[in-house]
Write a structure and sequence with these properties.
- The chain is an alpha/beta fold.
- The protein has two domains: 6-221, Rossmann fold; 227-284, no CATH class.
- 33% of the residues lie in helices and 23% in strands.
- It has helices at 44-52, 96-106, 111-120, 136-147, 166-181, 217-224, 238-241, 243-246, 265-273, 288-307; strands at residues 6-15, 18-28, 33-37, 59-64, 81-84, 154-158, 185-189, 202-207, 210-215, 228-233, 258-260, 280-284.
- It has a six-stranded mixed sheet with strand order 5-6-7-3-8-9, sandwiched between helices.
- It is globular.
- InterPro entries: AAA+_ATPase, ABC_transporter-like_ATP-bd, ABC_transporter-like_CS, ABC_Transporter_VariousFunc, P-loop_NTPase.
Length: 308
């Protein structure tokens, strides 16, 4: 039986009277990427700090690589963890190369490793410039290089694509995919949802310190019971005249878009494929952003119901 790389069991964290996390349970296996999503103050950063061992839980248990991350025994395992905080901060007077060489040496690596990582994130042209001259995007790239030192077994990335242009963002996700292929596990915290979903295995949505939903995107779609959007082309009025299809039309002005429950998807596709006139078809399941909004809206509705 595989032991999870990370295990949180009924974890709670309180700051005086404020509950930052309540009864959070999750596991992360080797080579798995978890997307952690939620509004500001939802508890994402608190959860990362607990995993890092920077803070201790008020209740429940946290295990990382088989031990409590806030224990003395966990010291050596920290060399196998990479962390990118939301707000990257470095020594302004040092050059990019000096900063990264310093962090590399802390983990037992040398200047050669630092140069290779600066090349990987695309800032070798600026490695001899002081960090104070760097743009926000360049600082973020330097932060990513620091997190990637030693191909860590576990990566915790808090808003990693903030300040990155589209090309740098695509490069970043390619690196995450490569690390996953090499067996690394990743927790990816992000407000920027488009583009994330094809790079994660599971998602967890937090709100006010509680888990609203967790699972694969297919599991979240099934639990949310959100419809699949199907757009056939070339059928003209055939959809509205077919009782099996017209029941899924939601707008009289749009006679081509069907919103179909997941359990009716296959039978609807078979019905559409029976028409020779159809020349194309688009099938769009609910994306991560729509799922996120659904679960947050559901939470708000429940809260209003309780308080009324």
């Amino acid at each position: 039986m595989n032991v999870p790389l990370i295990s949180l069991q009924n974890v709670g964290k309180k700051y005086q009277q404020l509950a930052a996390l309540e009864s959070v349970t999750m596991t992360l296996n080797q080579g798995e990427v978890l997307g952690l999503f939620g509004h500001n103050g939802a508890g994402k950063t608190t959860m990362m700090k607990l995993i890092l061992g920077v803070i201790s839980p008020s209740s429940g248990s946290v295990e990382v690589m088989g031990m409590a991350p806030d224990s003395k025994e966990a010291w050596h395992s920290r060399t196998q963890i990479g962390y990118l905080p939301e707000n990257v901060s470095f020594y302004e007077q040092l050059t990019g190369l000096e900063v990264l060489t310093y962090f590399a040496k802390l983990k037992g690596f040398n200047k050669k490793t630092a140069i290779a990582l600066l090349e990987q994130v695309g800032i070798t042209h600026a490695m001899k410039r002081q960090v104070k001259t760097y743009s926000k995007g360049m600082r973020q790239r330097l932060g990513l290089a620091q997190a990637f030192i030693g191909e860590p077994k576990l990566l915790l990335l808090d808003e990693p694509t903030v300040g990155l242009d589209p090309i740098a963002t695509a490069d970043f996700y390619r690196t995450v995919d490569q690390l996953k292929t090499n067996g690394s596990s990743v927790i990816l915290c992000s407000h920027v949802l488009p583009g994330v979903e094809q790079h994660i295995d599971r998602a967890m949505i937090l709100s006010d310190g509680e888990v609203l939903a967790a699972g694969t995107l297919n599991e979240l779609r099934q639990n949310a019971n959100m419809p699949v959007k199907i757009k056939p082309k070339g059928l003209n009025g055939a959809v509205s005249n077919d009782p099996k299809l017209s029941q899924f039309l939601t707008c009289k002005l749009d006679q081509q878009t069907l919103l179909v429950p997941e359990q009716d998807k296959l039978s609807t596709l078979r019905q559409l494929l029976s028409y020779d006139a159809m020349d194309d078809i688009q099938v769009e399941p609910a994306n991560l952003e729509q799922l996120y909004q659904h679960y947050l809206t559901q939470r708000t509705s429940e809260f209003r119901g309780e308080s009324s």
